[in-house]
Amino acid sequence: MKALLEMHNIGKQFAVRGGPFQRVLGQVNAVNSIDLQIERGRTLGVVGESGCGKSTLARIVVGLHPPSQGDIVFDGKQIAGAGLGVDFDSTRRIQIIFQDPYSSLDPRVPVGTSIAEGLVIHGIGDAASRRQAVGAILELVGLPPQAANRYPHEFSGGQRQRVGIARALILKPEFLVCDEPTSALDVSVQAQILNLLKQLKQQLELTMMFISHNLAVVRHIADDVMVMYLGHAVEMAPAAALFAAPRHPYTQALLSATPIADPDRRGQRIKLVGELPSPLNPPSGCPFHPRCGLANDRCRAEMPAMLPAGAARVACHAVAEGRALAYSNAAFAS
To answer: What is the mean pLDDT of the chain?
Structure first.
């Protein structure tokens, strides 16, 4: 099946300024050389530690951050890259659900006004048809139409996130970016929002990028998974293959840290040594080598390429050379 969204060598750097004249002191390498394809109707889960570049990648997709390098192709059309401005049509077809449902809503206006804002910007309908559309989308996400007249502080966290989902869907997008949409919610409410997103994906035929640090959540909703570390993609695989047999040492460590309620299914815990390096001063070679027990001189000097490894693609010299330790992930198998 043809990919709906393609990223080619996407990178993003942010200048760090300081001093009385705000001189550039360095560059934060937030995202580095990301290549991916998301087929229509599938959900890509993006996981990794805080600061690995997940949210920056999400904002690049929806046009909030222009990429410093590379290009993005959506439905066969380049929508981002060197010399390109904002593609107004793509902003309607690609929408985002933000992490914090309260700070992403204007507290001074009723939520119906916030939801209808996209219709106003794109010049869709008149006031009466917009009110009707807002009521219909609120019902779709499990809220009564009259909720449009209430303010954000009058809702619970889960209800506010439903409002955020309604605002993202009001323009009938084809691609939905979910930037940790459940991380600020209670566990029981998380399940409700996840089930709602799965239902809406099927009902509206959506393609999704779902960003989270919670591997259990990603396993529940994603078809494919990309693991990021310090701005780099280190492993990509179908979700079932990745959770059954992770290949990259970092992916193995992430999965081993996932709590399991059944004491008979607990696996070996892999503990990483040291802290996540600073993106201001990333290590040479493989970005994971300072914390990897398999690192050698080649890892410290040469950046690994993303190469096929079974059902996955992995950026790891140890995997490519057959030096990777076998790790039994039976505790995470279905």
So the answer is: 88
Task: Find the domain containing 267 and state its range.
Answer: 237-334
pLDDT tens for each residue of 26-63: 888 899 999 999 999 999 999 998 889 999 999 999 98
Count of other CB atoms within 10 angstroms of residue 1: 7
Decide if 278 is inside a domain.
yes
> Residue 174 is encoded by which pair of tokens?
């084809």
Q: How many domains does the chain have?
A: 1
Tell me the per-residue pLDDT of 113-138, one tens digit each, with 9 for 90 and over: 999 999 999 999 999 999 999 999 99
Confirm whether 47 is domain-assigned: no
Query: Is 182 within a domain?
Result: no
Q: Are 117 and 148 in contact (CB under 8 A)?
A: no
- Decide if 317 contacts 309 (C-beta within 8 A): no
Local confidence band at 263 (pLDDT 50, 70, 90 cut-offs):
low
- 149 near 139, Cβ under 8 Å? no
**Three-class SS state of 227:** strand
Spatial distance between the Cα atoms of 222 and 218, rounded to a whole number of angstroms: 5
| 86 — pLDDT class (breaks 50, 70, 90) | low
CA distances, 1 to each of 38, 41, 105, 116, 164 (Å): 10, 10, 37, 34, 30
Instruction: Tell me the per-residue pLDDT of 170-200, one tens digit each, with 9 for 90 and over.
Output: 999 999 999 999 887 888 899 999 999 999 9
Are 225 and 242 in contact by the 8 Å Cβ rule? The answer is: yes
Q: Both tokens of residue 295?
A: 């690192």
Question: Residue 274's beta-bridge partner residues?
Answer: none
Strands 224-229, 43-47: parallel, antiparallel or unpaired by DSSP? parallel
- Contact between 170 and 137 (Cβ < 8 Å): yes
The first and second tokens of residue 167, run together, are 């605002």
**CA pair distance 13, 29, nearest whole angstrom:** 5
Specify if 317 maps to a domain. Answer: yes
DSSP 159: H
Largest CA distance in the chain: 67
What are the tens digits of pLDDT across the range 145-160?
999 999 999 999 899 9
